[in-house]
Amino acid sequence: MAKIIGGITTSHIPAIGIAMDRGIEDTPYWKDFFAAYPPIREWLNEQQPDIAIVFYNDHGLEMFLDKKPTFAIGCASQYENADEGWGIATIPPVTGETELSWHIVNELVENDFDPTVCQDIKVDHGLTVPLSLMYPGRNYQHLKVIPVCINCERHPMPKPSRCYALGQAIGRAVESFPGDQKVVVFGTGGLSHQLDGERAGIINADFDNECMDKLVSDPEALTRYSNDDLIEIAGAQGVELNMWLAMRGCMLGNVREVHRNYVAPISNTGAGTQLLLPE
What we know:
By secondary structure, this protein is of the alpha/beta class. The chain contains 10 helices and 10 strands. The protein has an 8-stranded mixed β-sheet with strand order 6-3-7-2-8-1-10-9, sandwiched between helices. The protein has a two-stranded antiparallel sheet with strand order 4-5.
């Protein structure tokens, strides 16, 4: 059967892509942030996963106010990147995965989830920045990607417990898929941040580090928060924790943390990075 070999959490803020395009990763502002990624890149190079399931949120590129699915899954063979206004350079297409993605869709529907199935979708920085971080030089075409989009922008949004349950359902689907594929799961976005309004710039580092602790030891404790709680504690965009919870849900059972980094502020964001392995 297919096997989830690890989970990775990472920020996906667009400024990261711009920093890489400009070659300023070693400048004082960015150095500590980018220092988090070589150990994860080394692990990916050693393990050579076949497939990546990437939980991300669309920032108005394909899913705007006129249509906003709660959960959406890509089942295409390729995904084009498009700049949604941040000035990030367009990067090479992302290779899709069709067999496992359809298996996941069928299993989700069978288990009372109703995702939107996307066979023609462009992807934004929420997905492409993490891939660029993990594979310098944008050498990610060998990796087959399954995008799983979670609404973190427009109310009503799925609550943390529902996102965690989605991840668990996807994890069980992967375990039931015949073959020997190695799967890595990315939880992107977060942590605490708010980009506009009276509380713009809020960062709650204590809460961010607590979330990273609980993601390892007691993820269900994080599911007891409501989205309103997350907004109050971690800012309007703090709900992006839901992508991390979905990733953790995929990793059925206990995990161990083998790498962690936290830097704040980076582009008005608490930027956390973790590498989790199943026990």
